[in-house]
């Protein structure tokens, strides 16, 4: 499973980075006379409603999906690890306040909260990252808090405290490292969630704006041609499904490696 996931993810990354070299067609070039053309040797995945090459747009859209996933996971994990470690290590009122904030944010459906935030901030790639990070950090915070509650009772942590080490040093040098394996697994699965969320927001017109290609906007544009040109939705849908499946496989495999008790 982990090999399959790694293979899919690596293939997507290489395709996104080397897209212009793999398929040099301009993703914005229009051939209106050939609009909705089915897949052919010249255009393996066909042309869209404006006569643009779907393969070229998929390759460029992969950059958007991976960029959003990496940005959201990076911001969310950093903020979540900070608040989670502070809450778990210090406990008391600090833990109560942070835990209540986490509970409040987790009470709302994530995608609905993201839609509301993007609607307020305005549709753009940056605002999508901000909105998804605001709702994404709570999962990491809750995970790291549990790890910190356990780690602060370890003998080496108590020894560091007894030796006079500062709380910040103990958290950074001794508590956080115990949570890194779990955070890596969570981040891998979080990539899949961020990619789906970005595609959903773009599908609703709240994400990446034209003419920048996005798998979600490609799906939205293809809805009007489900019967006369199904390739407009089939290929973007397959791209989203395969990449999300790859990250899920990778995350499940890493979880099995980190915690052998999870092996089924």
The total number of structural domains is 1
Separate helix tally: 10
CATH architecture, please?
Orthogonal Bundle
Name given to the CATH homologous superfamily: MetI-like
User: Average pLDDT across residues?
Assistant: 89
Pattern of helices and strands: HHHHHHHHHH
Low-confidence stretches: none
Please indicate the percent range of residues in DSSP E strands (runs of 2 or more).
under 5%
- How helix-rich are the residues, as a percent range? over 70%
Structural class by helix and strand composition: mainly alpha
Which sheet architecture does the biggest sheet show?
A: none
CATH class membership: Mainly Alpha
Query: What general form does the structure show?
Result: elongated
| End-to-end separation | 12 Å
Radius of gyration: 22 Å
Number of strands: 0
CATH topology: MetI-like fold
Give a brief outline of the structure.
This protein has helices at residues 2-17, 19-22, 54-90, 92-107, 110-121, 125-151, 155-162, 167-203, 215-222, 231-258. The protein is an all-alpha fold. It has a single domain (2-18, 55-262), classed as MetI-like (MetI-like fold, Orthogonal Bundle), CATH 1.10.3720.
Write the layout of secondary structure elements.
Layout: H1 2-17, H2 19-22, H3 54-90, H4 92-107, H5 110-121, H6 125-151, H7 155-162, H8 167-203, H9 215-222, H10 231-258
Helix pairs in contact: 1-3, 1-10, 3-4, 3-6, 3-8, 4-6, 5-6, 6-8, 7-8, 8-9, 8-10, 9-10
């Amino acid at each position: 499973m982990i090999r399959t996931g790694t293979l899919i993810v690596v293939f997507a990354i290489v395709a996104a980075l080397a897209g212009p070299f793999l398929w040099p067609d301009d993703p914005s070039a229009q051939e209106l006379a050939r609009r909705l053309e089915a897949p052919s040797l010249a255009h393996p995945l066909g042309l869209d409603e404006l006569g643009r090459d779907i393969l070229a747009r998929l390759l460029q859209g992969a950059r958007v999906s991976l960029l959003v996933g990496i940005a959201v996971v990076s911001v969310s994990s950093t903020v979540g690890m900070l608040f989670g470690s502070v809450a778990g290590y210090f406990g008391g009122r600090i833990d109560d306040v942070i835990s209540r904030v986490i509970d409040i944010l987790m009470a709302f459906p994530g995608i609905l909260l993201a839609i509301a935030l993007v609607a307020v901030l305005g549709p753009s790639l940056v605002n999508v990252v901000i909105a998804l990070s605001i709702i994404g950090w709570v999962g990491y915070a809750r995970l790291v808090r549990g790890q910190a509650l356990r780690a602060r009772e370890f003998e080496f942590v108590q020894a560091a405290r007894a030796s006079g080490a500062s709380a910040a040093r103990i958290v950074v040098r001794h508590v956080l490292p115990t949570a890194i394996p779990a955070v890596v697994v969570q981040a891998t699965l979080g990539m899949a969630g961020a990619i789906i969320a970005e595609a959903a927001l773009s599908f609703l017109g709240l994400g990446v704006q034209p003419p920048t290609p996005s798998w979600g906007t490609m799906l939205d544009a293809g809805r009007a041609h489900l019967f006369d040109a199904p390739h407009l939705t089939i290929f973007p849908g397959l791209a989203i499904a395969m990449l999300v499946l790859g990250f899920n496989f990778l995350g499940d495999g890493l979880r099995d490696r980190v915690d052998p008790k999870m092996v089924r």
